[in-house]
Amino acid sequence: MKNLLGLFLLHLLLGACQPSTDSPVSVFIEESLQEDLKDGRLLLIFSTNHEAEPRFGISDNVGTNQVFGMDFENYQAGESLVFDPESFGYPIESLADIPEGEYTVQAFIQKYETFTRSDGHVVKLPMDQGEGRQWARAPKNIYSTPKKITWEKGAELSLTLDQIIPSVTEPEDTPYIKHIKIKSEKLSEFWGRDMYLGAHVLLPEGFEENPNQYYPLMIYHGHFPSDFGGFRTSPPDPNLGEDDYSARFGIYGYEKMQQQEAYDFYQQWISPDFKRFLVIEIQHANPYYDDSYAVNSANLGPYGDAITYELIPYIEKEFRGIGEGWARFLYGGSTGGWEALAVQVFYPDEYNGCFAACPDPIDFRAYTSINLYEDKNAYFKEGNFRKTPRPGHRNYLGHVNAMVIDMNHRELALGGEKSRSGDQFDIWQAVYSPVGEDGYPKPIWDKYTGEIDSEVAAYWRENFDLRYIMERDWATLGPKLEGKIRIYCGDMDNYYLNNAVYLTEEFLEKTENPFYAGEVAYGDRAEHCWNGDPNLPNYITRLRYNTMYLDKIAERLQQTAPPSFNQNNWTLTKN
């Protein structure tokens, strides 16, 4: 561990604007790739895997590649970039400490664009290019062809950025799946430029043949979808074998299994006795992340209002949704689980129920393994004579493979100190924080040391701590949320998300006038992202979000739908 003086000195270095002139690394840019380059972040990546591109190997795992990052501004065509040797790195912090040896190296530039927002701030951020705000795959970003080198102390390294990521190919409509994209007036006003929302829409069987039928709407929240997933009109590819391995689930043949599940869903979808409804997956990638968390935010703008009052009414008008709150339901897992609950809480009259699986922290007293209101440091539990790193990721046995400090230092190397990494802790900060004086999200904690800002934590509590908000406002919220809240989580969630669910359940079970009348359930030894089925493994149930809650939705519709609603096939006929 560094001493306090070392921490202070390194913190100063992180904020340095000018790179050192005695850097051993020079980065050149091919002339044809210089034209629209102005501001961005330069990454230098080392890998011991000589078969794969280094840019795809940066992770929280112990086998991660090494990355260093530095921002640059006002690039002028014809210039080369000198890599600042004092730039922060992950997992090794200093370029001078890279061991001698053979590596495959790669330079990469994530381009920034300038936004003049309606709040008066001018910020430079990486704009989504249709890929879902994934820096390593974002069109227009440029990189060098991987180069195998022998790294020695005092040696010089020269890299040339000679590759550019091509544009994304948009998915095509099919008889069942339609794709829409609309300009959001609310978001465009906030960001000072045209901003768009999209969605993939799954149409019910018989949609074209029954023009007088109107349908309930199921909103499947989650990360950026390139197309509608889990729906396939043909059987699995017969050429698929059983030899593909899923490291996440530890099983073989998972691709074939996924295709079979998608085809089974299609067979259900077209069967005569299956309920008829619309399903949508929303595209709301933004300059900070692959989605917006579907709420209004000081830094991201009014995404909650834009989705609820612009996008969803447009979809319902275009595809004959019923268009009333009683006929809309929310579900999703992880990010989507938080969104499902948050949208239900913030727009209680506009939706009729949420199914929140493995939600991101819904009580900030258990912000993963951190209590934002009592802890002083996010990275360490500190005593008088020692400090212990806080765990960030575990398996179902409780074995830890990443600490909170590791996860945040990776983001710090990739995106710097202004929440620009496009990753998890940075997007939470961007959504939940007030705007800082520089126009970027005000940090919840020092990204290097982990020291928590209690004033920012108080802002988070009042605006985005879902358990706190429900408890604070239950007198008015309770009657609108009665029977609408269902939460599911594994009790060995990899990111400790079950702890916030425990605290939320404790509040919900004590509610009165009214009692919340919902459900909270846990999967025994289940990891992220358990979604409510105790009889099947997670690698199956995660493929069944669009069908697994239908019985519970049917119960809700019987309780709340008007008499004209057809409970047998879930349609409302209009002449």
Automatic annotation (TrEMBL):
<dbReference type="InterPro" id="IPR000801">
    <property type="entry name" value="Esterase-like"/>
</dbReference>
<dbReference type="InterPro" id="IPR029058">
    <property type="entry name" value="AB_hydrolase_fold"/>
</dbReference>
<dbReference type="Pfam" id="PF00756">
    <property type="entry name" value="Esterase"/>
</dbReference>
<protein>
    <recommendedName>
        <fullName>Esterase</fullName>
    </recommendedName>
</protein>
<dbReference type="InterPro" id="IPR050583">
    <property type="entry name" value="Mycobacterial_A85_antigen"/>
</dbReference>
